[in-house]
Design a protein that fits this description.
Blueprint lengths: L14 H11 L5 H7 L4 H6 L2 H11 L3 H6 L3 E4 L2 E4 L2 E4 L9 E2 L1 H8 L33 E2 L9 H5 L3 H5 L12 H10 L17 H5 L1
Antiparallel strand pairs: 1-2, 2-3, 4-5
């Protein structure tokens, strides 16, 4: 059954972020609770079982294949696939939540009311361990000042909306961003010129930028 309130799945968003926002928009406390309402478990979702994504399609109206495409799907031991790219587990911050504070402010239009939280979303790039800088704003990708529950994008950042709006989490990076620009293009389905295109997406900045 379609939920009363739906949210869009953004083109560079992870499915985990989308589900967190969907739960929040409908007053459901956690991602796990939303999945249970759909009669699937968090374990099924994290393992990438198709049934979990079909259930999410019923709730959200977003196509199952799109949800799978933008999720980290385990395809072999310690290797995940997202947007058609295979990335080793050691190169991922899967379950953790980082943001570019400027992207967050742009999403929420610098509003600090909790209702605005549904407007911000987690980018796939932010989950790649080697990505350290926002290629758009040249700010460091930051984790929340205090630990939070994994896979809960909304709950992680609601307590810090004021600090983000005031720029208190901003860390300007004067140099860098080449790897992040490269990775963002590849996640978007493009193939940048140069020899780095032949490296796995999760390769470190040291390999790609030097």
């Amino acid at each position: 059954m379609r939920l009363k309130n739906t949210v869009p799945l953004h083109s560079e968003e992870t499915t985990a972020s989308f589900v967190s926002r969907l739960a929040f928009a409908n007053g459901v406390p956690t991602v796990a609770d939303l999945l249970l309402d759909a009669e699937v478990t968090m374990a099924q979702f994290l393992k990438g079982e198709r049934r979990a994504f079909e259930a999410l399609e019923e709730l959200s109206g977003v196509a199952t294949d799109d949800l799978i495409q933008q999720a980290f799907i385990l395809v072999e031991p310690h290797v995940y696939e997202i947007f058609g790219h295979r990335i080793g587990q050691q190169h991922l911050l899967r379950g953790e939540s980082r943001i570019c504070p400027a992207c967050f402010r742009q999403d929420t239009r610098s509003q600090v009311a909790s209702d605005a939280m549904v407007l911000s979303y987690g980018r796939a790039l932010w989950a790649i361990a080697s990505a350290r800088v926002c290629p758009i704003h040249k700010l460091a990708l930051v984790s929340a000042p205090e630990a939070s529950v994994k896979h809960e994008f909304v709950d992680t950042w609601i307590p810090w909306m004021f600090e983000i709006a005031e720029g208190e989490l901003d860390q300007t990076i004067d140099e860098g961003g080449m790897y992040e620009e490269h990775a963002a293009l590849r996640l978007a389905g493009e193939m940048p010129e140069g020899w780095a295109r032949h490296f796995p997406l999760g390769a470190s900045q040291r390999h790609i930028c030097h």
